[in-house]
TrEMBL record:
Official protein name in the record: ribose-phosphate diphosphokinase
Reactions this protein catalyses: D-ribose 5-phosphate + ATP = 5-phospho-alpha-D-ribose 1-diphosphate + AMP + H(+)
GO cellular component: cytoplasm; ribose phosphate diphosphokinase complex
GO BP terms in the entry: 5-phosphoribose 1-diphosphate biosynthetic process; purine nucleotide biosynthetic process; ribonucleoside monophosphate biosynthetic process
Lineage: Bacteria, Pseudomonadati, Bacteroidota, Flavobacteriia, Flavobacteriales
Domain Ribose-phosphate pyrophosphokinase N-terminal, first and last residues per copy: 9-123
InterPro entries on file: PRib_PP_synth_CS, Pribosyltran_N, PRTase-like, PRTase_dom, Rib-P_diPkinase
Length: 313
């Protein structure tokens, strides 16, 4: 049953075009037409090829690197504002630069706050995103933020697996809150990994807090980048007597040697969403689409309805 689209129009950024098409299909609409002019030096200019005056529009695009993806979304927001759109909702399945959510040492930026301010300055009147790296990023915005949780996709999948002796694990101390939320719903035990880094993306030491002997372990995280933490955690848990180790990560950044690490790891599977398109396919990676979740929330926003039914935790 298609959702009511009323006067809303949907547009996709090029980096998220496949997901945008899926969202539009779930929503019951067609994507609007945007043409891009690209100059010799790489500069580009989007152009809306239909009237959006007085309309609510949804601009769908994740802001994962490169920075061109963020720039494309910003230009489309500005173009929509100058075309007299009434409401401009930035639908950002993956909110990039979110790891810079605080000053963790002197003389560094708070990148996530800067991005929030830039989005608002460009003309975004609402943000819809999913599984922010840090919940407090919502407070960087003065505009409404709908922060969705991929748990509404992952938990039904985990229940279908019917794993006995299930244990939820966090790959680091920072993700323990998320792991405990999953364990409460699934009525399972929790373990936490404690890791020390030499530098970004390089782990020097990892310890396990809790017992995984004879357990089917599911690691829970918001993103997987180089996959170093996940694969190291899987190795440690199997060494400690786990039956199996899976991982669920909302955003599949998968940079560097991530695919190679996953293929050579002791992970049974890595379950992700399509918030970021995969660069290559892998038999160990299962993708769950977040299109229906976003379409449902977008329809509720357009029709001024509650979105609380879309949250599991």
């Amino acid at each position: 049953m298609p959702y009511s689209i009323s006067e809303a129009k949907l547009f996709g950024c090029r980096q998220s075009m496949d997901l945008a098409k899926s969202i539009a299909q779930e929503y019951g609409a067609s994507l609007g037409q945007v043409n891009f002019t690209t100059f010799s030096d790489g500069e580009f200019q989007p152009s809306f090829e239909e009237s959006i005056r007085g309309r609510r529009i949804f601009l769908i695009g994740s802001t994962h690197p490169s920075s061109d993806n963020l720039m494309e979304l910003l230009l489309m927001i500005d173009g929509a504002k100058r075309a007299s759109a009434r409401h401009i909702t930035a639908v950002i399945p993956y909110f990039g630069w979110a790891r810079q959510d605080r000053k963790d040492k002197p003389r560094v930026p708070i990148g996530a706050k800067m991005i929030a301010k830039v989005l608002e300055a460009a003309g975004a009147t609402r943000i819809i995103t999913m599984d922010l790296h840090a919940d407090q990023i919502q407070g960087f915005f003065e505009k409404p933020v709908d922060h969705l949780f991929a748990s509404s996709l992952f938990i039904p999948y985990l229940k279908e697996l019917g794993l006995s002796d299930l244990t939820i694990a966090s790959p680091d101390m920072g993700g323990s809150k998320r792991a405990y939320a999953y364990s409460k719903i699934l009525e399972s035990d929790v373990v936490v990994c404690y890791k020390q880094r030499q530098k970004a993306n390089v782990i020097s030491h990892m310890e396990l807090i809790g017992d995984v002997t004879g357990k089917n372990v599911v690691l829970v995280d918001d993103m997987v980048d180089t996959a170093g933490t996940l694969t190291k955690a899987a190795d440690v848990m199997m060494e400690r007597g786990a039956k199996s180790v899976r991982a669920i990560c909302t955003h599949a950044i998968l940079s560097g040697k991530a695919y190679e690490r996953i293929e050579n790891s002791k992970l049974v599977e890595l379950i992700v969403t399509d918030s970021i398109p995969l660069r290559q396919q892998s038999d160990k990676i299962r993708v769950l689409s977040c299109a229906q979740l976003f379409a449902s929330v977008m329809a509720s926003v357009q029709n001024n309805e509650s979105i609380s039914d879309n949250f599991i935790m």
